[in-house]
Design a protein that fits this description.
With about 180 residues, the protein is of the alpha/beta class. The protein has helices at about 25-30, 35-45, 55-65, 100-110, 120-130, and strands spanning about 5-10, 15, 45-50, 75-80, 95, 115-120, 135-140, 150, 160-170, 175-180. It contains five helices and ten strands; from the N terminus they run E-E-H-H-E-H-E-E-H-E-H-E-E-E-E. It has an eight-stranded mixed sheet, with helices on both faces. The chain has a two-stranded antiparallel sheet with strand order 2-8. It is globular and about 40 Å long.
Length: about 180
């Protein structure tokens, strides 16, 4: 059965982006061998991707400018947005508006036998929690304190989590998996 998973990197104080809404601070940690190995294993299980419009726009701009490669391969990518956004060649993109619950069945179907990765942003992940669709939160916590920024869910989310596991990825970086109740 397809599972909706929010896999995200965060500072020790729970921020995924700094005060200027930039997540590039995490790049160095993402290249660490333990983090990269775990992410690559996770990504193999992903059949579809969900991303928010702002996050997609940032990625699309960097891809178009040649500063980043498209990281989602040929997996279907669903973009929640209220704006017209540019497409990228050789990508499977679906731009959608509306309620998360309304689209969840189509998104799950597009994942085939794989899971759905909720990439972010935080508000999109929070919307999946509010719609009671998010199954799992996977947080890579790194030894940095940002002090301010965008929190993991980006909005006033209140939900119960149940710990599934904690894994040491090396370099004082830990991966925590939670079931979202």
């Amino acid at each position: 059965m397809t599972s909706f998973k929010y896999y995200v990197g965060a500072s020790v104080d729970g921020f995924i982006a700094d005060g200027s809404k930039d997540a590039h601070w995490f790049t160095t940690f993402a290249k660490q061998p333990g983090v990269k190995k775990h992410f690559d294993q996770f990504f193999e299980s992903v059949g579809a991707v969900v991303i928010g419009g702002k996050t997609y726009a940032d990625i699309a701009r960097e891809v178009a400018e040649g500063r980043m490669e498209w990281k989602f391969g040929d997996k279907p990518v669903w973009v929640f947005t209220h704006h017209e956004l540019p497409t990228l060649p050789d990508t499977d993109l679906t731009f959608i508006r509306g309620e998360f619950g309304f689209w969840s069945r189509d998104i799950a179907h597009s994942a085939g036998a794989g899971d759905v990765w909720i990439v972010g942003g935080a508000d999109v992940a929070g919307g999946f929690v509010e719609a009671k669709i998010l199954d799992e939160l996977i947080v890579v916590t790194v030894p940095v304190v940002l002090g301010e920024g965008t929190s993991i869910f980006g909005r006033g989310i209140s939900t119960q989590l149940s710990s599934l596991s904690v894994t040491d990825l090396g370099g004082d970086i830990f991966l925590s998996r939670y079931s979202v109740d």
